[in-house]
Design brief:
The radius of gyration is 18 Å and the shape is globular. The chain contains ten helices and seven strands. The two termini are about 25 Å apart. A seven-stranded mixed sheet has the order 3-2-1-4-6-5-7, sandwiched between helices. Helix 2 links the parallel strand 1 and strand 2. Helix 4 packs across helix 7, helix 6 packs parallel to helix 8 and helix 6 runs parallel beside helix 9. It has a single domain, classed as Spore Coat Polysaccharide Biosynthesis Protein SpsA, Chain A, CATH 3.90.550. By secondary structure, it is an alpha/beta fold.
Length: about 260
């Protein structure tokens, strides 16, 4: 199938993993619907109050699809289930956006337009933070970037941890079905490294990210940092047998895209 024919069949949706984030969820859903983007909500074992909000949204809006997980499994598990569900609903691409108000909903159209122009590419956001970002999260993020650059032998990936992305569903579902990946906060980083390893195309867009003062974070300092450290170690040893191919590739062409 040619790129032109793929564009003709471009059918995106928004994918929102949810775990007890009901405060701004309706606003995020409405922002997606306002640009004609259907929504796949993934309930990752939320509490009763949050479930009621999601049920109301799926009942009141025809283009809101609710996927339920029986218990909380983590952001990565919810995203993986959401990607598979979106593909089963015959969408071709899924824009992942967080439910907690961190991501700039004004950028939804820009991300989708870039994805439509580059339908085979993962469109990944790289954040511009304001003063609301916790300093320990900010500095730990750059330590993770260094490991990503080591594990890809490249500085192509500008940010591996931003969850504001557009996934091409065919390639993404094939990747998560064939490669083991973390189920929690380690997923975003591991996915983009394995996407790069697979030789897929990457487009990167700058986007504003905030940490709302009244926001609820499910990042657990010791647990999630431990999982991320183990993930980087696992990727490092997996990178070693890819070393010749990565070196040859990085000396010939550099995947990526314009800002």
């Amino acid at each position: 199938m040619t790129t032109e024919s793929r564009i003709e069949h471009y059918k995106p949706c928004a994918l929102i993993p949810v775990y007890n984030h009901w405060q701004v969820l309706e606003k995020t859903v409405q922002a997606s619907l306002s640009v004609d983007l259907p929504v796949v909500l993934v309930d990752d074992g939320s509490n009763h109050q949050c479930r009621e909000v999601m049920e109301a949204l799926s009942r009141d809006f025809r283009d809101v699809h609710l996927v339920r997980r029986s218990k909380n499994g983590g952001k990565g598990a919810a995203v993986k289930d959401g990607l598979r569900a979106a593909q089963a609903l015959h969408f071709t691409h899924a824009l992942q956006i967080d439910a907690d108000g961190q991501h700039n909903t004004s950028d939804i159209s820009r991300f989708v337009q870039t994805s439509q122009a580059h339908p085979d590419a993962l469109v990944a956001g790289y954040p511009v933070f304001d003063a609301s970002v916790p300093r320990h999260r900010y500095y730990a993020r750059y330590l993770s970037h260094v490991w990503v650059w080591i594990n890809t032998l490249s500085t192509t990936i500008r940010d591996s941890m931003c969850g504001f992305r557009v996934y091409p569903l065919a390639q993404s579902c094939a990747l998560i079905d064939t490669s083991p990946m973390g189920d929690r906060m380690d997923f975003d980083c591991e996915f983009i490294v394995r996407w790069y390893w697979a030789g897929h195309s990457l487009q990167q867009l700058q986007t504003r990210v905030i940490y709302p003062q009244d926001g609820i974070s499910h990042f657990r300092l010791w647990r999630d940092n431990g999982l991320i450290s183990l993930m980087h170690a696992r990727l490092f040893f997996a990178m070693l047998w890819r070393l010749p191919r990565l070196l040859a590739r990085n000396f010939s062409t550099t995947p990526g895209g314009p800002e």
